[in-house]
User: Fold this.
Amino acid sequence: MNILVTGGAGYIGSHTVKELLKKGFTTYVVDNLSRGHSKAVPSDILFPIDLSDKDKLYTFFKEKNIDTVIHFAAFAYIGESVDNPLIYYQNNLANTINLLEIMIKCNVNKLIFSSSCSTYGEIIGNHLITESTLQKPINPYARTKYFCEQIILDISRSYGLDYSIFRYFNAAGADDDGCTLGEDHNPEPHLIPSVLNAARKGTPVTIFGRDYPTPDGTCIRDYIHVSDIARAHVLALTSKNASRKIYNLGTGKGHSVLSIIKKCQEITDLKINILEGKRRNGDPAILIANPELVARELGWKPVSSSLDTIIRTAWEWMKRNPER
Ligand SMILES: NC(=O)c1ccc[n+]([C@@H]2O[C@H](COP(=O)([O-])OP(=O)(O)OC[C@H]3O[C@@H](n4cnc5c(N)ncnc54)[C@H](O)[C@@H]3O)[C@@H](O)[C@H]2O)c1
Assistant:
């Protein structure tokens, strides 16, 4: 296989590239570095192409004889998508259409696509979310992911595209094989790195809502270690079962915001001050995956997704990269 990883210099992409290279796959990264980091991937496999540039993309596909695509490249900040929806429709939707056009033109038939649990929208109650739970995206970011899924299904019906779609729950942690990679977003939208950052800087963390119908009143989410996500992509490349399938990628267990803060305090041995904020619009109380399908069909199991390993690896990476 000659694999193209779009967005491979980003958080989840770079961990997946590391896993692919470890397993000996011929791997190329296309990333415009708008939100990624060149140091996160070997320089000889990084091509700074923007997915809006169809001519460059076509030439690249031909030169490298690409036959498989793992498509991470996107903007992924929900708040930003509400403030500026068009850049999300442009980058996540129009550029995915560009990519699909080039794939069809070059007879590339295998795509692994990064979708999101946010496509389910506001889940009422506390049942585990299965792949057949109704998708009701409630913000522009989630809608771009939902529309991309629909387009991929249409392309598959019309052109026979073989796809695997993963709906990730909350990616977290840092490279479980040496902590050489980690999460480096600016601004940082995710809870765990934000709390760890607050711990080391001595700044407070805001909890948005303490009145949810959960045991401690804070929201509960399903955190999945980024290296476990990376390994799922390798399984999707190698398993016939993954053909034309959609999988949730989560652990089936939830952790509250308060329990994350407590665990970060325990691991860093630093005091974290809390501010209490109001609920944010569109933040459901509980989002937890039912990961049975991916376990049964791909034999995938989260091995590094205990809260302890997630926070320890994230903290270790942060200590090694004090400038981030
Ligand atoms: N992080 C999560 O918890 C999470 C959850 C669900 C889904 N996802 C999805 O997973 C994927 C990866 O997420 P991430 O957290 O690693 O994001 P990220 O921002 O760290 O990585 C995205 C990468 O894509 C690149 N990119 C963006 N637009 C591009 C373009 N037009 N051309 C070329 N490169 C471009 C960026 O430079 C960046 O390196 C995204 O599609 C995201 O929507 C992430």
